[in-house]
Amino acid sequence: MRYIRYAFLGALAVVLISVSLANRAAVELRLVPEALADLLGFNQVITLPLFVVVLGGIAVGLVLGFVWEWLREHKHRREASVKTREVNKLEREVTRLKGKQNEGRDEILAILDKAG
């Protein structure tokens, strides 16, 4: 299974490198359209290779998706932690009650009750 993962990552690297080499042309990214920028007097332009724009967009999309899912699943994680605390509390209570039940009994029988 490890070799399949390495083969997949290697193939992905080859694809990403070939896409990057094929899309080295410089593109201009503008914060607002050119006509609106002239009206506002705010003309922010950045020049980047096309592959940086494409791969950066994919990376930003992945990060936003991960954050969205993490926020969406918050209620499930909270419920799981509440249930875990409740289980721990009940386990402590069962241990305490078994200790009370075995008071004054033979030690060997008490050990056998704990084991069973």
List keywords for this structure.
116 residues; 2 domains; two-stranded antiparallel ribbon; 5 helices
In terms of topology, how is this protein built?
Elements: H1 2-22, E1 26-30, H2 34-40, E2 45-49, H3 50-72, H4 74-101, H5 107-115
Pfam family, one: LapA_dom
GO molecular function: isomerase activity
Domain Lipopolysaccharide assembly protein A: 40-94
CA gyration radius, whole angstroms: 31 Å
* Low-confidence runs: none
Alpha plus pi helix count: 5
Strand content: 5-15%
Order of helices and strands: HEHEHHH
Explain the overall architecture:
The chain has 116 residues and is mainly alpha-helical. It folds into 2 domains: 1-72, no CATH class; 75-116. The chain has 5 helices and 2 strands. A two-stranded antiparallel ribbon has the order 1-2. The chain is elongated and about 90 Å long. The model has no long low-confidence stretch (mean pLDDT 89).
Question: Can you summarize this structure?
Answer:
The chain is mainly alpha-helical and 116 residues long. The protein has helices at residues 2-22, 34-40, 50-72, 74-101, 107-115, and strands spanning 26-30, 45-49. The protein has two domains: 1-72, no CATH class; 75-116.
